[in-house]
Amino acid sequence: MGSLLAIALILLLATLLIGTILYLLTARRYQSGESVARSYDEWTQDGILEFYWGEHIHLGHYGSPPRRKDFLKAKADFVHEMVRWGGLDRLPRGSTLLDVGCGIGGSSRILAQDYGFNVTGITISPQQVKRAQDLTPPGVSAKFLVDDAMALSFPDASFDVVWSVEAGPHMPDKAIFAKELMRVLKPGGVLVVADWNQRDARKAPLNLWERTVMRQLLDQWSHPEFASIEGFSELLEATGLTEGPVATADWSKETLPSWPDSIWQGIARPAGLVKFGVPGLIKSLREVPTILLMWLAFSAGLCRFGMFRAIRKERP
């Protein structure tokens, strides 16, 4: 019994060592929109992220207070909670909605099927667009296009709703991102954004360990910068296109269980090892340190999960 335990411990330590080495040597630092597109193309093509995270490449909502919940169900529940928080369930069916950073279309399909929105999903990744199209059944009012959120190809005032989940950290200029989101909204239209945010460093500068953690979170997943909740709401208002103040909320507690749950998926679903083999295991291990750092950062208040709701002015 003791020898088996020793072997298991050695294997665990070896696994952690391999993951840490891969983590340090294969950082995906942000270079441009093309580097973000390449990263998502790779994650989409190998299928590992979809296998473990499902159709929703975003965190889940576990309730207030959080409770145990199936990982994939929590992700779908997040979409419904965001719809209710944003007041989108009161809009008429057939309203047009732009999903900025749509991934492989999980949220877009729920918005189209359950709420009757006429959805256009955009992502910078061609492989994500292809996969989203493949996963969308005929008759679902959701289409998908390659587009850049920093320079949206749509005319002013094109959509009744603009929706975005966890896309902001990939944007190099948050002011331009905020202006583009508001620009394509029709007068009276609703913007609803959910994002990973950093605590507001203007009130208290980050200390050494916080700067070190944030540097890793930026470098590992192609992020140029995290905005703060306060900072991004100010940027939205600075566009001059919002009707009154931007509504915000912090869903850090509601989404926090997503991080340990995402690691648990690799243990609870061993079929992934059969499906993807040793290369898949190595790729999965490479992401574990970043997920653990995310969990630490959100638990400690260094990162916050921000919600934003804004109405487009009737008269700019």
Describe the 3D structure:
By secondary structure, this protein is of the alpha/beta class. It is built from 12 helices and 7 strands. A 7-stranded mixed beta sheet has the order 3-2-1-4-5-7-6, sandwiched between helices. Helix 6 links the parallel strand 2 and strand 3. Helix 1 crosses helix 12 (271-300). The chain is globular. The model has no long low-confidence stretch (mean pLDDT 90). It comes from Thermoleptolyngbya oregonensis NK1-22. This is Methyltransferase domain-containing protein. Residues 98-193 form the Methyltransferase type domain. Keywords: Membrane, Methyltransferase, S-adenosyl-L-methionine, Transferase, Transmembrane, Transmembrane helix.
The count of DSSP E runs of length 2 or more, i.e. the number of strands, is 7
Strand order, largest beta sheet: 3-2-1-4-5-7-6
Q: Could you state the order of secondary-structure elements as H and E?
A: HHHHEHEHEEHEHHEHHHE
Give the biggest beta sheet: 7 strands, mixed
User: How many helices in DSSP terms?
Assistant: 12
Spans of at least 5 consecutive residues with low confidence? none
- Class by SSE composition: alpha/beta
Query: What would you report as the Rg, rounded to the nearest angstrom?
Result: 20 Å
